[in-house]
Write a structure and sequence with these properties.
Elements (H helix, E strand, L loop, with lengths): L3 H5 L3 H9 L2 H15 L12 H27 L17 H23 L3 H20 L5 H20 L3 H6 L1
Length: 174
């Protein structure tokens, strides 16, 4: 079954046209025709690690919000913690840890937005803040054991994404 054009040209005038065209031209036409029908391939090619960078930026924002929630809990509701503040590795009270986590959370959110915007400096700041978040969660591991372990694992993923695939940040901007 042919296309509409082939059906219209199937009459005598189409046969006369085919007789006038040399065989070589018809072969070239047959080779070129399928290529003309193929859909155009997108010109833009994303870097391989672009997904990891977008992941890192989005997760930095989420981790920042979670750290701010941790900080607010430390400020306003210290009864949600498993142990007393004196039982932590570094024996600050929960109010001090709350302010640390709120400040860290705000910086993480801002850095995550910068990573999503493709800012090259945000990669380095994001790595440093993820390391600081990892350390802060480790030092308060006794207060929120499960939460801290999950946050440490997420920080490790962010550090991986920004260190291994960080060069793609510059390629995203161009």
């Amino acid at each position: 079954m042919g296309t509409d054009r082939e059906r219209r040209e199937a009459g005598a005038p189409a046969q006369e046209k085919r007789a006038e065209v040399p065989d070589q031209a018809r072969r070239d036409e047959a080779v070129a025709a399928p290529a003309a029908r193929r859909p155009a391939v997108a010109e833009e090619v994303r870097p391989v690690g672009a997904g990891w960078i977008m992941f890192a930026g989005a997760v930095l924002v989420v981790v920042g919000v979670f750290d701010a929630i941790w900080g607010l809990a430390g400020l306003f509701k210290s009864t949600v913690f498993v142990v007393e503040s004196s039982d932590l590795v570094v024996a600050f009270n929960f109010t001090a840890w709350g302010w640390v986590h709120i400040a860290l959370g705000a910086l993480l959110v801002l850095t995550g937005i910068a990573v999503l915007a493709g800012q090259p400096w945000a990669r380095y700041i994001g790595i440093c803040l993820a390391v600081l978040g990892l350390i802060a969660n480790f030092l308060t591991l006794a207060a929120f054991p499960f939460w801290s372990l999950v946050m440490i694992a997420i920080d490790i993923l962010v550090i991986y994404a920004l260190t291994v695939h960080g060069r793609e940040v510059a390629q995203l901007r161009t």
